[in-house]
Specification:
mainly beta; 2 domains; ten-stranded mixed beta sheet; about 30% strand; globular
Amino acid sequence: MQILPYHIHWALHPNIYVAPYTNTPIEVNGNIEKDEWASVPWSYDFDDIRGEDDAPSDERPSLECRTRMKMMWDDEFLYIAAILESDMEVRATFEARNSPIYHEDSDFEVFVDPNSSCHHYKELEMNAINTVWNLMLDKPYADGGQEHSGRIAKPGDEKYYDVEGQKTAVRILEGSLNKPGRQRTVWAVEIALSHRDTMKHQLSAKPQEGDQWRINFSRVEMKGKINWTWQKQKVWDPEQRKHCGKVDMHMPDAWGYVRFGPSMKDAKKDEIIGEVSSKDIVKGAGDPMWPTRLAAMNIYYAQRRYYELNNMFANSLQDLSEFIDEEILAPYGRDGGIVSSFADDFYKVQVRDLLDHVVSLDSNRLMSDHARLDLSSRIE
């Protein structure tokens, strides 16, 4: 049942990293070789944001520009360690907190959406001298979203957001900063994201073992010309009628997952810690809501394209037929599995799977999941 009838959906499932629990708080000092991190597995190597199938070969990272991360968690923090290898200049010029790091500097970024809602997600950027920029997006930029941060607003203002418990550190392991030309430079970052900061403007509580958040990581170089990520940003393209990689980190629906796992010593013999393989995802280790999320997002991208062409949203799924992926929507049928309400400037859709898992999504890309489908909103 995990494979059929959702085999296409599982093939598009994003990366999952199972972070082990730690009973001992981590001292965040930039030393990612300390004992606490030693047995925690590294992630897959970062690749171009579009993925290997869609990225130009000369924009994918070479072996000399490897990037990896690993994660742990406790009751207060999500811990992240990353190592960035480079054969180019590593720039670090911004010194003021909440500066737009990626505009000039080599940049490591973390994006977190704990509710899988695509709204009020958090972003951290940091450079190689540990200057940080924290912001919250009320929704993605493509949906009219706006930045909330200490860069553009002051405490008490509606658009102010900053963190209180976050800890960050950087160490230069090889080479030097701000030296033009080709040279080997390696720098490490260590981060503790406070759950209290991450959960601001969210409905969820602190994570428990087994919970999962949407997350992604990005490395930006050369003022944004280079963007390498842990999870490729691949979504449905209604014009090309296929899933394609996009140069856009602000698509939370395409991010990977962090799953909050047991401690290393408490993990069962066959329990996964670290990256989850695609084979294990298909066998049942993936997000059980993923196929339904993918179907809902298929309608979202079709509607967005329809609006671009007609300055209004389609008022029926039939009107979207040339923009949707019939294979993605086929398991849900048109008789009860997809319930929609439409207006010229707004729509909401609910998609139900065979187990009565339901995902709701609206034209602002606000996503939520429910136990059962509410048929009262159905419009024939």
